[in-house]
Design a protein that fits this description.
93 residues; 0% strand; single chain
């Protein structure tokens, strides 16, 4: 099956792939979790609710930013392929 067919049929899901550097990723997750736990331990219930609202908003923003980055990368990759395949490209072999 071609890459295009995999995309079409939903068999290619980039977000389902493991991180490129899993050791670094795990270390960063541990750091974030430890810092969040330390922060939450000293909060009142009201402060925790405010923090959760902030965290939810920041998570939505991060998801949109990741989608934008993925889309931009995909577009740049497609433009590179078009340039490579273009007949007017000066570096043809």
């Amino acid at each position: 099956m071609t890459l295009i067919e995999q995309l079409y049929y939903g068999d290619l899901i980039p977000a389902a792939h493991p991180p490129l550097n899993p050791d670094k990723w795990r270390d960063l997750i541990r750091q974030v979790t430890a810092a969040e736990d330390a922060l939450l331990d000293g909060m009142t219930d009201e402060q925790r609710q405010k923090y959760q609202a902030y965290y939810d908003s920041a998570s939505r923003h991060h998801a949109e930013e990741a989608l934008d980055s993925f889309t931009l990368g995909f577009r740049i990759g497609a433009r590179l392929m078009l340039e490579v395949l273009s007949e007017s490209s000066p570096a043809q072999t």
